[in-house]
Specification:
single chain; about 170 residues; five-stranded antiparallel beta sheet; about 50% strand; disordered N terminus
């Protein structure tokens, strides 16, 4: 049914509805305070220019359902705790924990959330629970590291009294 709706929409309308991004961290971050945004500075995809790699914020352009996923990496005998925030309100957490080891080991924690957003709301990943947290970068030779992605699932824009799905 959703694909049927897409074929009936003009191309320009479909393009307006496409919002998606994938970003990652290409360098280690140290001394992050509680509620400090984690800025995933490298962008693989940024359809609709909704993600700002300078501040780590996704800004909602149209009302709808969105899905976000994120992963944080740890390699320093510590616990990294991060959260997905919508306008500063915690939605879900993720933990990467190597604090109980006596050697340096890699750990990655992540989560996924589907949230309803309205235009203008901001979504970001923030460190919390521990002051002086470090988050580790994405390795070039393995699928390990810190990532942040999001996309629109369904908009609330009405077109001839029909809900638009993308």
């Amino acid at each position: 049914m959703a694909s049927h709706l897409l074929t009936e929409l003009p191309t320009s309308k479909r393009q307006e509805e496409m919002f998606a991004f994938t970003s990652y961290l290409d360098h280690n971050l140290h001394h992050l305070g509680i509620d400090h945004p984690i800025v995933f500075n490298k962008v693989l995809l940024n359809e609709g220019s909704v993600y700002n790699p300078a501040n780590g914020m996704f800004t909602c352009q149209i009302d709808g359902l969105y899905v976000f996923s994120f992963f944080v990496a740890d390699f320093a005998r510590q616990q990294v705790v991060a959260r997905l925030s919508v306008n500063g309100v915690n939605q879900v957490d993720a933990i990467a924990d190597t604090s109980n080891t006596h050697q340096y080991m890699e750990s990655q924690g992540g989560n996924l959330a589907v949230v309803r957003l309205t235009a203008g709301q901001a979504v970001w990943i923030a460190s919390y629970r521990h002051p002086e947290t470090s988050v580790y970068a994405t390795g070039v030779d393995r699928f390990q590291g810190s990532y942040y992605s999001g996309r629109i699932c369904t908009s609330d824009v009405q077109d001839s009294d029909t809900k638009v799905s993308v």
